Amino acid sequence: MNLQLEKRKEKQELERKKKIAEEKHKEWVQKKNEEERREKERKLIKKMAEKAARDLERIQLQEKAKGKYKEWLKKKRAEESEKKKKEEEKEQKRVAELQEKKEKSEKIFREWLQNARNKPRPVLHGYGYTNGKLSGLYLY
């Protein structure tokens, strides 16, 4: 009877230990699952933060690129404006030189014309001319 009682106690003790082991196992599994869930959340948050940082960096790069482009465009337009202004000045200078040359030519022509009027006429009575008509030696 003592033996049966002892066996029962051992059996109960084994069942109690088994129950405790199962509970501890359940707690461990639950704890492990909780840790995995937290780890997943932490990784997800980290991944989202990295993505946000990359997006922010990309946006900043785009803004910087837009700024550089606007700066370049402004510089390019200023250069084109300066070039156009120089070309217009060059064209005006060329037109002014042409006008000056034309005026000078006209002045010289008028002077020549004035001088040509005042020059004595060639004598018509030389070398076979009589009364303004060719005569004598050079007739054909």
TrEMBL record:
Pfam family membership, one: CCDC34
Positions of region (Disordered): 1-39, 67-103
InterPro entries: CCDC34 (IPR045323), CCDC34/181 (IPR025259)
Domain Coiled-coil: 3-133
PANTHER family, per the entry: COILED-COIL DOMAIN-CONTAINING PROTEIN 34, NY-REN-41 ANTIGEN L15 -RELATED
UniProt protein name: Coiled-coil domain-containing protein
Taxonomic classification: Eukaryota, Metazoa, Chordata, Craniata, Vertebrata
